[in-house]
Amino acid sequence: MDKIRIAVDSLGGDNGAEYIVMGISEALSQYDDIEIIVTGDEKELTSYIEKYNCDKNRVRIINSTEVISCHDAPVEAIRKKKDSSLVLALNTVKDGEAQAIISSGSSGAILAGGQFIVGRAKGVKRTPLAPLLPTKGKPSLLIDCGANVDAKPENLFQFAKMGSIYMKNIEGIDNPTVAIVNIGAEDEKGNALVKETIPLLRECDDINFIGSVEAREIPYGAADVLVCDAFVGNVILKFYEGMGSMFMEEITATLMSSLKTKIGALLIKKTLKNSFRKYKATDKGGAPLLGLKGLVVKIHGNCKNQEVSSAIAQCRNFIKNDVTSKIVSAFEDGK
Amino acid sequence: MDKIRIAVDSLGGDNGAEYIVMGISEALSQYDDIEIIVTGDEKELTSYIEKYNCDKNRVRIINSTEVISCHDAPVEAIRKKKDSSLVLALNTVKDGEAQAIISSGSSGAILAGGQFIVGRAKGVKRTPLAPLLPTKGKPSLLIDCGANVDAKPENLFQFAKMGSIYMKNIEGIDNPTVAIVNIGAEDEKGNALVKETIPLLRECDDINFIGSVEAREIPYGAADVLVCDAFVGNVILKFYEGMGSMFMEEITATLMSSLKTKIGALLIKKTLKNSFRKYKATDKGGAPLLGLKGLVVKIHGNCKNQEVSSAIAQCRNFIKNDVTSKIVSAFEDGK
């Protein structure tokens, strides 16, 4: 196969290009079969590439003169800011120069750009955003958390198939379990969307459907793939983040509240940190936007080098396993 | 006004009638203006009433020969099990003997019974289940978490009004803030339901609408009233419960993992317990089913005496403030 080539948008995030280049440098050192195209401010990127000793034979800069921010209207920004770091990076995938693109920029613009520039794979009706949600057990792929709400049963059905392909090929899970997020365990429970989707999932031989899961079970790792409409997925993902922050703030405040608790904190700090490390999951990469003709990965706006290098590893894995083709072939005959 | 009379279903929960009677006894001691009607096994109830020194002049038993369990189909059970403790208790409200009823039984049966036996107030299209969600700040009323999914904009609009009346009269919050659960902060974000509901809420003079809140903000107490469709509310409520349990299990396991952490645990235990007490909220009573001709309160299946006595206090408060009439008059002219 061709060289693995991954485009990275260095702008649009909160922390600037430096962490992005640090992550690129780490990934280049770790994997000798990859090449990186990085878009952004050429002068700045050149200096960071120097500073972090990137292998210059395997990293190419595309200079951009514009940035898309969270305040830009996504679709309009994608259409008009043709020289933005995000559009230039997406173009490399569209043109076949790269097979994947990573951005920490505006979620809306990444989702819009994925669809309008990279384009949907044939037969795919909707392209879901599918982050891994850390749980007490194995992480679950929460599909869809994106911006396209009011899904139809056939959309959720396709999400289940795409999610299964992803978890099998990227997380190495054999016959991944698929569940639908519901408000009861029985098939007759749920809203109209869920009730119409369940029979489609039950009849599908390509997936390992285990039925409905209630949200109470999600933190325990109820299934490898959790299928839901983007509105519900987005609520779950953001509520998860909010609950995590709130709990950590409460615990920190508790531990710092008196001399006695501060001494207690010293004794438990390291173990506590280890216990909760798995809920961070920046080492798992970013959230893939699935069902496109190439891979688009959204990483956090406040990402640091570790998340960038993990996302590059995730893209490499995706490309090496030819997951785009696997998704395309799963839908090509209109299934 | 009439005597405050509250019906309590002693069966259907996980812990049997004893905790229920303990809670009743506590409430009777605390409030001398209430009377209780308790449904269940007469012999058993008589012995517990004796054991816990209930004021016998203010507690009346209605003997029941049937129980509705979680395994019964709710609507069918309500129709057929006419001598069940739940149906008998609901009948006391329908007949005007009591103004409120509390049950720890099957949620589905309580919701069905509330609608079919107690009946909707005039003008109310749907009766939402509205628990208080503990947050880092003040608790938020999450309305709707019930079983009636696929709400229409006018339903959410009514939930906002009912929730405001509840929070003002029961939690004593002046001009309670109302927000809609959404996937973005701007009015143009959301699914079709949310986008159609927002203008109705913006135009309503009776509520203090502050716009959309993302789920990330919910654990911090984003608004006094959080309006959403029952599917979304149910997911939030159950995910909240699951996240809480999972975090507590992780912390307990961490603290018990070595001698060093066990010593640390001794030093922080009391403060930690105090910090997280507010997230338990069994002292806030149960989840009211609003918009009925009387008050129906659902308490946890595994409730203990504290939750029962709090729920009785909640009902007393509701009745004393005549909240049912306030809700009825808010909708009587078809607003």
Largest interface: A-B, 55 and 55 residues
Q: Which structural class matches the secondary elements of chain A? A: alpha/beta
Estimate what percentage of residues of chain A fall within beta strands.
15-25%
Q: Specify Rg of chain A, calculated over alpha carbons.
A: 20 Å
Largest beta-sheet characterization of chain A: 6 strands, mixed
First-to-last CA distance of chain A: 28 Å
Can you tell me the overall shape of chain A? globular
On the 0 to 100 scale, the average pLDDT of chain A is 93
DSSP helix fraction of chain A: 40-55%
Protein model, in words:
2 copies of one chain form a homodimer. Helices cover 45% and strands 15% of the residues of chain A. In chain A, strand 1 (4-9), helix 1 (17-30) and strand 2 form a beta-alpha-beta unit. Chain A has 335 residues and is of the alpha/beta class. Chain A has helices at 17-30, 42-51, 74-80, 85-94, 107-118, 153-169, 192-203, 230-255, 259-277, 305-320, 323-331, and strands at residues 4-9, 34-40, 59-63, 100-103, 132-133, 140-143, 177-182, 208-214, 225-227, 287-289, 295-298. Chains A and B meet through helix 8 and helix 9 of A and helix 8 and helix 9 of B.
Give a summary of the structure in a few sentences.
The structure is a homodimer of 335-residue chains. With 335 residues, chain A is an alpha/beta fold.
